[in-house]
Amino acid sequence: MSEQLKFIVEQLNKEPFKKNFNLITFDTLEPMQLLQILNDVLAEIDPKQALDIREEMPEQTVKRMCALLGMLKYKPPGNLSDVTSFRQGLVTGSKPLIHPILHWLLQRVPELKKRAYLARFLVKLEVPAEFLQDDVINDTYHQYEELVEGFKTYHKECEQLRTSGFSTAEIRRDISAMEEEKDQLIKRVERLKKRVESVSNHQRMLEQARQLRVEKEREESLTHQKQEQKNQLFQAEQRLLRSQQQLKDMRQAATDANPESLMKRLEEEIKINSYMVSEKLPKELEGMRRTVQYLQKVALEPAMGQADLQELEDKIKEADCQINHLIEKRMMRNDPMDDNLTLYRQQASIIIRRKESKAEELQEAREELAAAERELRQRSSQAQGSDGEEVIRGDELKRLLVKLRGKGTVYKKKRQEIAELKAEYGVLQRTEEILKQRHETVQQKLQTMEAEKGISGYSNTQEELERVSAMKSELDEKKGRTLDDMSEMVKKLNSMIVEKKSALAPIIKELRSLRQHCQELSQEYEEKKAQYESCAAGLESNRSKLEQEVKALREEMGQKENRYHYINSMSEIIEMQMRRAAEEMKAYVSSDPQERKKAIREVYMKNISEQELLGKKLREEQKMVRDSHSTNMEQMKMWCDLEQLMECKRQCFIKAQSQVSIGQVIQEGGEDRLVL
């Protein structure tokens, strides 16, 4: 806190504030004075804030300061994050609240000046949506947004110019040097003119020289135009070659282009895209999501030790055993229908795998084609914006066209293969459905025949027995092969064990002595560890006690320091009051009337007498008002009665006028009847 106060006082004593504070005088400032200093700092950042807070309401002051601090992105400390407490602290001029604000502002005055300047133009006005329905307001608001964007660009250009390294001094030096060169050239031209004037026919020679210069300039411009036209011709030839090649490719593609082939091609593309969207891409997306979830789960888990790894390995082994057991059970209770459909399942799985591989190849080919198209567009844009420079040469263009043709043929082949695979898949799917239907019909007929003969379930039992016998024969063969393998493996293991024993015998002897030494070292380690822990515990307790004592002493030192500053400030205040009292006594006792008039007592007595005269005058005015109150009230009542009487007369006059007009209308109507 003391460092913060030192920094604030140092900055306030510098330009442009020049407050001439020290730590004591700044710490003894009243809340209103502290708020005025904060306002002065804000006025240095934003000149609009320059005013005397005594002439402003506290609510307006707090609102203005909070708005500016919010615009400058000031964040209060953690204990002052409540808005109401922050506003209340500003109203009361709380030191714990204002000191951090001053410290934050004085640390970054240039940066905040720039931010306040930019906020005047970049903080947009909030216009309600219902007002923007008006065309005029909407157009004006769009113009305002365009001006804001223009200001951003101009400000960026200005900042770039400021940071570009060009200085006004260098530019001025360049301008002065150019002016000197200009003067020298003018002098040289004048000297040459004087020399030429003495030569006969100098006007004609000057005219010829002028024409020569004009022709040379024209020749240079024509040469430049010729070069540009050559470049444009080359670019046109390149575009013509590309167009001819595109036309040739399109004609080749259109040779077999009829409505049926086009529709077939579109249907194939639709099927491919639907497969990619409905099957392949969702599977890849789901796989990526599972991978991400797994990685997130692994990242969130704590670091694993050797015991955790061993536990996971045991779980994996148990899961493998369960999987093997389930496979054996499934083999034991295998359904004959599954055996009949195994061939078709295998074919379907092969087709699916081929389909997925072809889809991946198609995706890769599409990506390569898109990359080639992007490269082609980039090369064409470079060729258009290169101002005559040759970007794609003939050989490179030919290689690119050959490569694109190769890619196109590969793409067509792959697409044809995918169409064939789709057709084959449809045929196999239909074949599978037909065979299933036939198998169901055959099974139904067989069941009915068995029921008629009284041997229902015979075919299933027969198939089961045949399948079990086949499995038994396979298992017997596997057992025989396994026993032979096991016998050979046992022999190999025995020979390896003998070799390892002979190789490990000297190592085991050495290991016994090392184990004994290790036991001794571990015992010594345990003793040293116990001594270390006891010593560490004692040192830790002593350290905690010392920390508590240091903390208490620091708190006491802070309290004493605060008390010292408070007593010093109070002593200065009392000394000041004593000086004022001595000056007052001196002025009051002095025989000089001018000095006596400067005394506070005389000033207050003069003010009291003036206020008494003013009170006497006001009491006389009050008495006059009371005396004339009754007559004024009567006069006001008479005026009200007169007003009512005039209003009544006006109403009567209006009614009389209306009756006269009605009578005239009736009279005119009677005359019309008489005429008829």
TrEMBL record:
Coiled-coil residues: 168-253, 309-382, 411-478, 508-563
Principal place of residence: cytoplasm
GO terms (BP aspect): cell differentiation; cilium assembly; intraciliary transport; spermatogenesis
Superkingdom, natural source: Eukaryota
Cellular component terms (Gene Ontology): ciliary basal body; intraciliary transport particle B
Protein name per the record: Intraflagellar transport protein 81 homolog
PANTHER family, A to Z: INTRAFLAGELLAR TRANSPORT PROTEIN 81 HOMOLOG
The keyword Cytoplasm appears for this protein: yes
MF terms (GO), sorted A to Z: tubulin binding
Role description: Component of the intraflagellar transport (IFT) complex B: together with IFT74, forms a tubulin-binding module that specifically mediates transport of tubulin within the cilium. Binds tubulin via its CH (calponin-homology)-like region. Required for ciliogenesis. Required for proper regulation of SHH signaling. Plays an important role during spermatogenesis by modulating the assembly and elongation of the sperm flagella.
Domain (IFT81 calponin homology) ranges: 3-126
Cellular localisation: Cytoplasm, Cytoskeleton, Cilium basal body
Alphabetic keyword roster: Acetylation, Cell projection, Cilium, Cilium biogenesis/degradation, Coiled coil, Cytoplasm, Cytoskeleton, Differentiation, Phosphoprotein, Spermatogenesis
Organism for this UniProt entry: Acanthochromis polyacanthus
Pfam family, one: IFT81_CH
Similarity comment: Belongs to the IFT81 family.
